[in-house]
């Protein structure tokens, strides 16, 4: 890659603007994925939890020079913590992954991996209200979207009775979700791409410096969706699953059926936008 030797001579305002463009737009995951429930014994990535951790680190821009580090740090704020007098938020937040800092201005999605079926195991936090917490976090980050796994709604679709493992009845969930105009819903298990980091960084799909390893793509973003899939199909890269292998219309129909079962009709539901999650791992750990 050619070096632009005149960069230090640019006006300060222009240099700062360029540094800002290098900052990643990230998905803030509020919890680790339950890989045993998602994938069973054959897991497509041995370092999936490490990807969640890597996605919380300070942007790579901070390691360029002092000026770039100042830009990276200026909006890198402590992750919001709910007040102790809001137990439905604080209790659940205390049991999930610690996210020390976050760029509240460049968070595209606040993502909740949790679904009621995951509370079957005693080591998973069951206290509090995970969805209410996700909505509260998103409210602290202007412009961010809330993303959910489809299994959350599907679980409520087939289990409408309130229990210790379900924070709400179906009616309570309806009332809660109607407080927002829309949610993004990841309609299938995460798609992993393994391969050379330099090739991935060149694409800009995971940030201009390759430091946003978790990305969510709406199903109607055809060009961007194709870019991820084509990268995974390149020689030397590995794609864990192909979102086009099974007709997308089938997954969209499943989501529509779930909406009808949970809310009764589209008119009674917030807008639910189908999406896919892509996760990049630079290690040669793909098992398929």
UniProtKB/TrEMBL annotation:
InterPro entries: 2EXR. Pfam families: 2EXR. Residues 4-75 form the 2EXR domain. This is 2EXR domain-containing protein. The lineage of its organism: Eukaryota, Fungi, Dikarya, Ascomycota, Pezizomycotina.
């Amino acid at each position: 890659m050619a070096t632009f030797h005149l960069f230090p001579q640019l006006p300060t305002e222009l240099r700062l603007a360029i540094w800002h463009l290098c900052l990643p737009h990230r998905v803030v995951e509020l919890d680790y994925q339950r890989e045993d429930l998602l994938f069973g014994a054959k897991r497509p990535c041995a370092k999936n939890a490490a990807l969640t951790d890597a996605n919380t680190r300070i942007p790579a821009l901070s390691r360029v020079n002092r000026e770039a580090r100042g830009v990276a740090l200026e909006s890198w704020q402590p992750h919001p913590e709910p007040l102790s007098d809001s137990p439905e938020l604080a209790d659940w937040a205390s049991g999930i992954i610690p996210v020390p800092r976050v760029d509240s201005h460049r968070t595209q999605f606040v993502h909740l991996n949790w679904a009621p079926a995951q509370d079957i195991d005693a080591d998973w936090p069951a206290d509090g209200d995970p969805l209410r917490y996700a909505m509260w976090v998103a409210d602290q980050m202007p412009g961010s979207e809330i993303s959910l796994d489809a299994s959350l709604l599907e679980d409520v679709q087939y289990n409408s009775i309130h229990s210790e493992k379900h924070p709400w009845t179906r009616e309570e969930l309806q009332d809660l979700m109607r407080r927002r105009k829309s949610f993004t819903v990841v309609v299938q298990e995460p798609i992993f791409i393994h391969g050379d980091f330099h090739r991935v960084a060149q694409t800009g799909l995971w940030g201009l410096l390759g430091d946003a390893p978790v990305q969510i793509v709406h199903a109607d973003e055809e060009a961007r969706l194709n870019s991820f899939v084509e990268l995974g199909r390149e020689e030397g890269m590995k794609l864990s699953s192909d979102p086009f292998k099974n007709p997308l219309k089938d997954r969209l129909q499943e989501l529509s059926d779930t909406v009808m079962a949970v809310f009764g009709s589209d008119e009674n539901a917030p807008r639910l936008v189908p999406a896919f999650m892509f996760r990049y791992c630079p290690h040669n750990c793909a098992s398929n």
